[in-house]
Every structure is written in C-alpha cells, then in structure tokens.
Amino acid sequence: xxxxxxxxxxxxxxxxxxxxxxxxxxxxxxxxxxxxxxxxxxxxxxxxxxxxxxxxxxxxxxxxxxxxxxxxxxxxxxxxxxxxxxxxxxxxxxxxxxxxxxxxxxxxxxxxxxxxxxxxxxxxxxxxxxxxxxxxxxxxxxxxxxxxxxxxxxxxxxxxxxxxxxxxxxxxxxxxxxxxxxxxxxxxxxxxxxxxxxxxxxxxxxxxxxxxxxxxxxxxxxxxxxxxxxxxxxxxxxxxxxxxxxxxxxxxxxxxxxxxxx
Length: 262
Ligand SMILES: Nc1ncnc2c1ncn2[C@@H]1O[C@H](COP(=O)(O)OP(=O)(O)OP(=O)(O)O)[C@@H](O)[C@H]1O
Prior knowledge:
Bound molecules: adenosine-5'-triphosphate
Radius of gyration: 18 Å
Strand order of the largest sheet: 6-7-8-3-9-10
Number of helices: 10
Strand content: 15-25%
CATH topology of the largest domain: Rossmann fold
CATH superfamily of the largest domain: P-loop containing nucleotide triphosphate hydrolases
Number of domains: 2
Distance between the termini: 25 Å
C-alpha cells in the first residue's frame, strides 16, 4: 500500500496555552478509511485543520502526496487544497443558492477569480455535478435551494461539493454530529463507498466510537493532543478505549465484540 499522508512529530500550540497537539505521528494509505476518535478537546479538529493548513502546525512535518504541506507557498497550497476535500459538521453551504450551485462551488479553487465570481461553469462541469448528485441520491433536488433540504441532504451536498474537486483525500470534521441516526448511516455508507469503490482516502473525526469501529480500516485515538492508539479497528480493545477516553470511557455505550463480529 502506498502512503498518501504522513504526519511526523506534529505539534500545535495556541498562544501560551498547553499544546493542543504533541508529537503526533501516523501514516494514512491510499484509499484507506481512517477515523480519529477522542474526548472533547483532545485535538481532533486541530489535527484535521493542520493537515490542509487551515491553521499552521507549530512543529513537525506533514507530507501529502509526497509534498511537504507545511512549506507550500500560496499558489502550491491552493493546488494541493484542490486535492483535499473538506466536509464540515454544519455543512457550510450557501443557503440561498441551489444544490447544483453549491456543488459547483467545489471547483472554485480551480477557476480564475473572474469565472468564479460570475459563477461561470461549463456544460461538462454541470453534467459532472448532476452525476455526483445523482450518485448521492439527490437527483430530484438539484435545483432546490440549499435551505429547503434536511440535514442529511445538506451533508450529501457537502460531499458532492468535495467530490467535484476530484480529490485524492476527504477530511471530514464530525460529519454526522448534527444528524439523526438514519441520516448519519446514509452519510457514513456514502463515505465508505467513496473510500472502497472510488479509492479516495477518507479521514473522519467522530464522537461515536461504535460508528468509527464499524466503518474504519484504521483508528487513530487521541487524548490530550497525543496519539494513544494507532491501529486496525479490528484490534482495538476496551483497554485501548479506556486509554483514549480516560474517565469518559465508562459512559460510552458500546459492545466491541458485537461490532467486531458484525
Ligand atoms: N483557535 C484556538 N485558539 C485557542 N485554543 C484553541 C483553538 N482551537 C482549539 N483550541 C484548543 O485546542 C484544544 C483542542 O481543540 P480541538 O477543537 O482540536 O478538540 P476536538 O478534539 O476537536 O474537540 P471536540 O470533539 O469538542 O470538537 C482544546 O483545548 C481547544 O480549547
């Protein structure tokens, strides 16, 4: 398997606060589905944001597709970001725009400023948007305004907007945290398909341990900014969960044996 992302000795400190990330190391392979789990404030979002340079890590090295992301200048960074799709908990759609227009926003990074401002998309781009939206079960909603959709539908538009970039990797920051269980399952099923059938690497921050274990090839467990578990979801034990969640572990309702068997 080829490594697509390598995170080496990465740290992040906000001002004089204690470190949000401390000597974080892991590798993610091409097409792998990875969940990052850990208690609130562990550093999950900070880690995802460092990977696509929404924020700058304080130290260490992040290599994506053989490029050192932390050294990239503005133009190179813009190019790399077209290969890394981002999915947000609150979808980040433009409510007054249609589903297809929101989807097409995913290719703004590849367009000239003028074309982007004027919303100039060619026929091939529009057809591609329709294909992706149909694949995600939104074929009937293409011309609806985004604010007329349910949460689960909005998140599928968020996925469509990321997919139209033709990314190598998706970073998903708590993509199901605002959704009911049925919509959450639909989103996780789509993300799994995107990884296993389209070969796109998927990294997901999750609060739900059971969901992480069910869908992921690999789990990265973080506690207080440090990686305390890095391995196959099949190998994780209750002791590992305790190390990741500390005293919160007792409150987590899960049956590792049952999940591993399913
Ligand atoms: N912009 C910021 N300025 C200062 N401190 C920050 C900032 N962003 C995050 N932090 C701190 O960094 C630490 C990690 O936060 P982060 O949001 O990455 O955790 P998380 O694991 O994603 O939490 P949650 O599951 O609650 O979203 C926390 O102590 C948080 O207060």
